[in-house]
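fold-stage: in
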Amino acid sequence: DVAMFGPLSYVLASSIADAEAFASDYRKNTGSFYKAYVIVHPDSGIENLTQLKGKKFAFVDPASTGGYMIPKLEMLNMGIDPDKDFASVIFAGGHDACALAVKNRSVDGATVVAFMYDKIMEEGLISEKDAKIIHTTQKFPGSAWAYRRSLDDKTKREIKSIMLGLTDEEKEELREFLGSTIKWAEVKDSDYDSLREAAKKLNIDLEAQ
């Protein structure tokens, strides 16, 4: 009845699984929105996206919003086609895997969602000696909590009220689960229309993801 989805996964779930967004993570630095980075090794000599042409690149996953769709769309808008202009493209499967691929120099560049990059840095998985940011994307809607659209209105109101009205004590009890999320903020399905439009521009078949 209730599930949490990544941004693009929610767009898919709303289309084929009767999901309806009602809340999103709210983080100190970005609010309810995400942004993504393109990173390279500091010793690579690469300073911008154009210099990645002819290089090896890693995205996170074809169904990842910040790890694939948004960075690819911005690259295309800048005249860089990852399908043609990179020497090779891989899907590393995770934001941490992308960061490690840059650290280990198995790729020349990679995408990482900003809050995950900060987390990976804080955990010491990588350091400023291993990666640097050369591009920051525009903000886009974050992960969505959604309930089944066909639930009765009373149940929906109760679920939303509980999640949006957490006390400080409850937040502290949930700290390990919340991570860098400081609260859940209200969202609605239409907040994700920009991602639907981005998917159309990239000819991404959401149902195939």
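fold-stage: in (second)
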Amino acid sequence: MSTSTIAAIATAIVPEQGSVGIVRVSGPEALAIARRLFHAPGQQAWDSHRILYGYVQHPDTRHLVDEALLLIMQAPRSYTREDVVEFHCHGGIMVVQQVLQLCLEQGAKLAQPGEFTLRAFLNGRLDLTQAESIGDLVGARSPQAAQAALAGLQGKLAHPIRHLRTACLDILAEVEARIDFEEDLPPLDETEIQARLAQVLADVSQILATADRGELLRTGLKVAIVGRPNVGKSSLLNAWSRSDRAIVTDLPGTTRDVVESQLVVSGIPIHVLDTAGIRETEDRVEQMGVARSRTVAQSADLVLLTIDAQAGWTAADQEIYQQVQHRPLILVLNKVDLVQADPIQADLSVDLPTSQVVKTAASLNQGIDALEFAILDTVRAGSLHAANLDFAINQRQAAALTHTKAALQQVQATIADQLPLDFWTIDLRSAIQALGEILGEDVTESVLDRIFSRFCIGK
């Protein structure tokens, strides 16, 4: 356990809106600090896992800071497996900051980002996959992202990783036993070893298939609405987000900058970017907007190329298409309410890289459901298609599993080349180490710093 005591505000503080603010203290002096700062009237027992009612006051002047509750959790039955106390104060900024300052004056140190969870990991309360899942749960942007994080917190990723590591350790033990005691043991059954390696590899590949799904759930999908001026891009954004995020007029070039909106479609966070109409212009401000539009389109995960159903496919549409054709693309045919005939005919003879064409009448809020279905179809055809488990790994875990897979494949190649058993053990140990890194059993301090630095301070 760490010898220092740390403190931090553990709740989001919103001026004039937060009803409760929590200051968390963890470490060997946590209870002593609480006794100096908290006055519990009457005969309330200072027992573990009890809530005391009373007052936070300055230890010297007895100046009253707040009427509050004190939650006591003594080691090892706490989040960090250290003594932990929490001051549950009235919300806002001033009160919780004053309570925190008093804790620091009594010897606690201000916690670093993620330090409470880091201590929980170092003290064996959590493995590294569970610790990372806590960070994902706090930052979840959709119910599905929260559910995947919760599955990781419950050990649904750690369990199969431990199983794979144990399987590799068993194989390594059998190989090393033949090296050390070759004369006393029967020959190694290579066919059985290869079958076991194949099963481990299959399981590794199945878990790796969740990496893209995890990335989508955590970071979301960046979708850029692009097209000529006045084709209805801003109307499409407003209809989709059910708000007036963008100014809509009949004048081309109204949108001068990128307008953003956050949506959730079937559990996937969608970061929608309405861009300025792409055209040649002498207006300096509009030129800057067009340049930003091109940049956004090049970096988007998905492009919604929007055209005017009245005008059909124009030379300007073709020019924009050539700039974004290497990106995943959906063609949005807007303003279909203004034409009588089916507009998707000879006018759209261009050879598009996708069969996804969606008709919308954004000004009437029509076609949005079809657009969302088309986006989901595009996603399922790509990264989400193989993700059939209830958890999802992150980039660090995916890198370690990729290393594991390569090492095990090398073991298979070594067996096929009939190399000595000593060569088998090299890559088996490499695979075992990579699996241990996922759980935190073989991980460097720099990796831990990188992981927990992304946490909020109070977690």
